[in-house]
Write a structure and sequence with these properties.
Layout (H helix, E strand, L loop, with lengths): L2 H25 L2 H16 L8 H17 L11 H6 L9 H5 L4 H11 L5 H8 L3 H18 L7 H6 L15
Helix pairs in contact: 1-2, 1-3, 2-3, 6-8, 7-8
């Protein structure tokens, strides 16, 4: 088994659930999330220098996942109505956050996920996505406004979305395993 294959197995074993959960949050669809993770793994580990640890490889794959999602893609699955989502199984009648995120264009969605899941500041998001800071700030502001209107229960502060956050990413799991 090659070193690249061993690293792929290590990333999937140690971080696969988190990568899939992040992709599902971004895409809102099981098949689209699996496809996004597959593309990110191929891009992040497919060529070039092989990372030395599974954590380094995970960071590279997460970056590839965000960039792949932000870039051009095929059509997304149809967006369920927020009222239907609330009736279809969200806890306490609350719509699933994935459905609410699907109200946002891809660029805004990835910026909002990086801001609130990873806790990153606009400057760190711009660096991670290799995008202009002005564009990231605009995406955060527009995304926060849309979510505030659609889901006031989320209590998103537009100014905090644009100005808050940390300059460095922390390793966080979405399933609470770490």
């Amino acid at each position: 088994m090659s070193a690249r294959t061993r690293m792929l197995h290590a990333v999937l074993r140690e971080h696969g659930r988190d990568l899939y959960a992040r992709a599902l949050l971004l895409t809102g669809d099981d098949a689209a999330a699996a496809d996004l993770v597959e593309r990110a793994l191929a891009t992040g580990l497919g060529r070039g220098h092989l990372p030395e640890t599974a954590e380094e490889a995970d960071a590279r794959v997460r970056d590839a996942l965000h960039r792949a999602f932000r870039g051009p893609r095929g059509d997304e699955p149809p967006l369920p109505d927020l009222d239907d989502a609330a009736a279809d199984g969200a806890v306490g009648g609350d719509p699933d956050i994935r459905v609410s995120l699907r109200l946002l264009p891809q660029r805004e969605r990835v910026a909002i996920v990086l801001r609130y899941v990873d806790g990153l500041a606009a400057t760190a998001i711009a660096r991670q996505l290799d995008a202009p800071l002005k564009a990231v700030r605009a995406d955060l502001e527009a995304g926060a406004r849309t979510l505030t209107e659609a889901r006031p229960d989320l209590r998103i502060d537009v100014d905090d979305a644009v100005e808050g956050g940390m300059e460095e990413a922390l390793a966080v799991t979405l399933d609470g395993a770490r």
